[in-house]
Prior knowledge:
By secondary structure, the protein is mainly α. Helix content is 81%, strand content 7%. Strand 1 (2-5) and strand 2 form a beta hairpin. It is rod-shaped and about 80 Å long.
Amino acid sequence: MSLINSGNGIIGIDYAEMNRVKSNLKRARDKSTELNSRINSAITKLQVDKNSSRIKMATDQLRDYSRQVTRMQGDMDRTINKVDKAIRRFKEVDSACAARIRAIGGDESEKKS
């Protein structure tokens, strides 16, 4: 876990947990892609009989669902990118802090000798 002391408290990130979140989001996105495919398949099957008003209403409703799913997929993609960015940024901060600590620790041990 990476921790940053912000003065008011400690901010932390658990890389394993963040990777699980990212993995779950990707699985949800994949399921929504499958759902969208099934919706489009149902729309195609319903379009065989275009004269029925009930079928037209059902087709319109399915198209609405498809648009909503597509919007959710975009939201999930943006969230996945944000999680990736947060993980990368915390790792950069971790590396920089570790380098500074090693540099300070090295300087201190040289002064004591």
